[in-house]
Amino acid sequence: MFRKRTNAEEAKRLFLKEIGSIHGTEILRIEECDGRVIAEDIVADTDVPHYRRAAMDGFAVRASDTLGAGRDAPVALKLGKNMEKGVCMRVHTGSPVPEGADAVVMLEDAAVHGDTVEIFAQIHPFRNVGEIGEDIEKGETIIKNGHKLRPCDIAVLASLGIDSIRVFRRPAVAIIPTGEELVHRGIRELKMGEVYETNGLMADLYIKKWGGITKLHDIVTDDPEKIKDAIDSNLDADMIIISGGTSVGKRDYVPGVVKEMGKLIAHGVGISPGKPTALGIIRGKPVVCMPGYPVAGIVALFYFARPGLRKLGNLPDDPDRVISAVLAEKIPSRTGYKTFVRVKIDNGRAVPLAVSGAGILSSVSKADGFVIIPENIEGLNAGEEVDVVLIE
């Protein structure tokens, strides 16, 4: 049996307390920076726009020349090439507003007759004119250190003529699948008692999605010395994820190896599924030991590996995507455990797919998200409104 079951929140707190953010940076072209975390403040060295620009297609005018203009009483201006009293000039959206003009009449509010333009609207100064620095002022801090860049942020950088920036390097995560029963896909047909390796693949893809870079180790058999060797050979990574071998059976060596090589923070956590999860630190590197059952493994990945990766990589703690739904059926839970129930959303109803069965991987694929039941609640009743944490 597990020597101690650690409360879910306490286990996460103790684990994250041991993790420090990486400081390494690299300079990349802005086209490569979507989703990366910037490692410097960006201060504008120019105004945007750096000239007065037309905000509409139309005619640049002196606003005072349109006084009294209306649909029934248009003002006639001369179409010219130099700005002066009684003259207007053709402009296009984004083009410079001529010196001497202080407004732009929209094309819809004017009619051209040869070299005469009839103006049907009285406008005030600066109407439809983008002033210098209207978007960005020189000296303004545009993006601050630690911000996760989005395409719109990168477009702002481009508007300043910035070609490359400094970003934090992405955390490197080594993933080690363990188990005598595991077989690589495509090598041969399965024998009795064998399964294809899936947890390592799943962890690899999620870590990449969450902003890390991965090294997927070959399958390691249930041998403590071979597990040690695999960990030793991957200590150049920023984090290690080990799949399988975390329970209390005769072949579950992983927690003991972690304890021998470093510090075992927790083994046996108050999450369901996922109780056999183990957390540790080896030579300053955080280690997440996810259970071999796939559903328990994905819960451990989301609950421990994801926040650990965010702290390592200076990534902001993005909130989960949550929607409200009405529970279609009663779902049980055990007090003392934070319970993750797989549900599918159907016309505003949360339909439980599997209350138990940590090995039923397809139930996660069919699910839209999890209903998370707190430790102090013993189940939820049909008809209750619940929050569904979306998987994607």
Summarize the structure.
Helices cover about 20% and strands about 30% of the residues. It has about 400 residues and is an alpha/beta fold. It is elongated, with a radius of gyration of 31 Å.
Beta percentage is 25-35%
| Annotated CATH homologous superfamily of the largest domain | MoaB/Mog-like domain
The whole-angstrom Rg is 31 Å
Overall morphology: elongated
Residue share in helices?
Answer: 10-25%
**CATH fold name of the largest domain, please?**
Molybdenum Cofactor Biosythetic Enzyme, Chain A
CATH architecture of the largest domain: 3-Layer(aba) Sandwich
Q: Tell me the strand order in the biggest sheet.
A: 7-4-6-5-9-8
Q: Determine the N-to-C terminus distance.
A: 34 Å
Average of per-residue pLDDT values? 93
The number of strands is 26
Reading off the top of the CATH hierarchy, the class of the largest domain is best stated as: Alpha Beta
Low-confidence stretches: none
Specify the structural class: alpha/beta
How many helices does DSSP assign?
7
How would you characterize the largest beta sheet? Answer: 6 strands, mixed
Number of domains: 4
Oligomeric form: single chain
